[in-house]
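#dry-run=false #mode=assembly
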Amino acid sequence: MSRLRPRATSAWLSFPVWAWLAFFVFTPLALVVWYSFGEKPDLFTAVSMDNLSFDRYAEVLDGVFMSTFWATLRIAATGTLLCLLVGVPFAYWMAVKVDPRWRPLLLALVLVPFWTNFLVRTLGWQIILSPNGMASDALQWLGILSGPLDVLYTRGAVQLGVVYNYLPLMILPLYVVFERLDPSQREASRDLGAGRWRTFFSVTVPDTLPGIASGCLLVFIPLMGDFLTASVLGGARGTMIGQVVARQFTSAQNWALGAAMAVTLMVFVLLTVVLAAAAFLLVRAVIRRARHLNLEVTP
Amino acid sequence: MSATRRRTDPVNLALAVLGVLVFVFLFLPILVIVVYSFNTGRLLGAWDSFGFDAYTRAWENPVIGNAVRTSLVSGVLASLVATVLGTVGGVALARARSGARWAGLLTALLAVTLITPEVIDGIAILPWLVTLGTDGGLSVVNNGMVRLVIVHTSLALAVVTFIVRARMRGMDEQIEEAAADLYANPWNRFRQVTMPLAWPGIFAGALMAFTLSLDNTIVASFIQVPGYTPWPVYVFGSLKVGLRPEIAAVSTVMLLLTLAALAVVWAVLRRSGDDNAAVASTFTGG
Amino acid sequence: MTRRRPPATVRVLAPRAEAGRISRRALLGGFAAIGTATLLGCSGSRTMATTAVPDGTLEDRLNVYSWGDYESPDNIRAFRSSHDITVQVDSFASNEEMIAKIGASRGTSGYDVLVPSGQFVPMMVANDLLSPLDHRLIPNIANLETAFVDQPWDPGNTHAVPKAWGTTGFAYDTTKVDGNPTSWRDFLDLAAGQASGSVSLLDDPWEVASIYFGSEGIDPNTTDPKALDAAEAYLTSRLAPHVRAFNSAPTQSVVQNELALLQMYNGDARLAFSESDDPDRWRFVYPTPTANLWVDTWAIARGAQHVDAAHAFINFMLDPETAIGEVDWNGYPTGITGQRDLAEEWELEMLDLIFPSDAVVSRLTPATLSDAQDRLTAILEHVQAKAG
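#status=ok
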């Protein structure tokens, strides 16, 4: 009886979503894939599909795309790692150490930058990092720098900008998992003689793996496609891959090459997600097994 | 853990210091924007003197007003469309048998929309909309507002669907089935049983959709049509020209409005019975 | 989805569920068909949205797509209030960017008035990106000096009228750069020396390549593959590592003293200096042996919906009083008769940055659009990838 009515209509209910995705998301994406096999026939035609080939992919793998791509990957990986290094202790502090009465307020405070326009936040950094800006003045006053700060329009500025822009995306999932931790487990671990670091790494961290994994993906994926941070803070030196892809469409008018770049980027991002998921499952399995053995041995 | 021990413990002290530093880091640029909104100079970054000129100039500039209005209207419309579609989709997914192939595929496709870099969405949708609008004869998609609603709905659809699905998963299905056994027709069942239960999820989804729309710059900059330039695209465009303090002034006003709206939303979600962690996770789309 | 269900309970429902599945497949199939048809169609047809026809009544909106900070806000405001037309001015950084936007949207861009550089006009006409002008609605064309009408790139001014002209050079911060640079050679030496890491280039393929061609005494319009190869080699390996930014309107970098050596248009340099707290710190050079002599034009976009307002706007801009206001704002001479005298009468600042001397003008080279354009674009891309 209980399986009866509601389920029968369930697939049918999803119909509008399928329709929307097919018409407004995947048809355009298919167009991009299609364009990637084309060519730019002359100066003022963006794309022609008369001679289909894989030449554009050869161009992608061979050209400026790859060097910018590796630079972007470095920025993204470093950015994710820095977010993790700051995010884990911070979320832990907020979710475990802070008096529970204050947590909602602090959480709201973390959300405020998240709700302020992305570009405007980044512009704030542009002002701060300018050679005449307050960071420059402060560092000179402290005697750390002898001349004006020379960081705006460098890769360093972009790195700072992305850590800033994506940090809340790392903190929030971590906060959620930390807050849902059961304190009695930690107490049990301590009662059994484990030190605080051992407790942290063998009890707390494994339980927060889902949060760490989703935080890393939430930071890494949008970062690979970001070009606003680099447009504001990067100048010529912090160019990111999103800008290179966009430029094929916004100024070079080479849709075939741009499309091939987009497909390459997309495949890379998909692979990252799949690999991350696989790694996550693997680590979890290993940890589970390790813990299981411990439990049997300890008594 | 006693209060005295917490105060003296070096690790806890270090954590607290880090916490304060992170907050300073998070708020520094926002503070700078607020301060520089009172710059009377012509360029945002070059401080001249203190005054409210930027606010009056922004108020008098019809293009800025129009950009903010476009953002708000397209945000509301896109979040409405995305919420209707996403609620239906989320309910469908939550009710799917475990292992149903269509549900797995739909989830995967929605996940793909979440991880597609925005720049790819932008370059993909523009030729398609142009094709529809010229070759396809659908001149309605030449309208800037329609374009914004379409792209912002696509961006938010997956988030709304997943939030609603998460909410419905935890719901006791027997309530619905009981209603069905009592011969409530599907519409009444949906309206009187499903909706009230799913409502916090739907509300959070709508809120996320609105925020995503309001903050979207990249896709919107590809498809924008003058007259329907959303606010972030206006800001992005002025990067090339030189940033004016007006931008900081409008941002400051919008920040204050957002804070007020957030406070209201938080109160509503808390009243509906979620704990803080649940509220936080709905806010972030988890 | 219904297959694994226990048969006894499903029998009644199966047809409905089945129906749902079939129609979903049918619909998806339909979408796929539409998609494929469109894909195939895309390569061939290029339908353009049509331009509205002037009907004598001004519309209440006008959308202008122009270079950054090019039109005087006072003039825009005056036009807005005298005709009650909401004017939106959006900006682009290069002709390529503007053409990409107009071309990709096939007449649905929403823009009415465009500001292409002269050499791009023939190609835009050929590709159906511009609408012809109705001279009856622009009587002020008569105010243009004869030297500026009827240019080779637009005989009879059928699609474009001159808006302003200017040239390219570089600005430098005298507190960071010594010496007295005069040529593109000096520019390259400073970029590799004292100004290294503090250099800004225009985001324009022709302009960036012309730095090298100028320094070597090669015609900047060259299409010689060897010269282009040499330019690419030099620019990517010897100039790019010292470049900090690519910016077509680097006013802000001057005002905030962010950079030391900036390739700029003369009028932009004037605008930037006039806003600097310390204008004496900056100098502008009209470099030898040659540089671009460009003419920007007013044109109406294909698919424009506010054509009456667009013509009225262009006519308004060709009025001598408006035009001198433009000169005062952006620092570029217009082609309107008697502007130099009017500029002196109005006591505009930094006249030498508005009106280059005859000696300078006589050595300038108008940029042309040639087969080398694709190559120049690729060179700029490589320079940008290697920068920093």
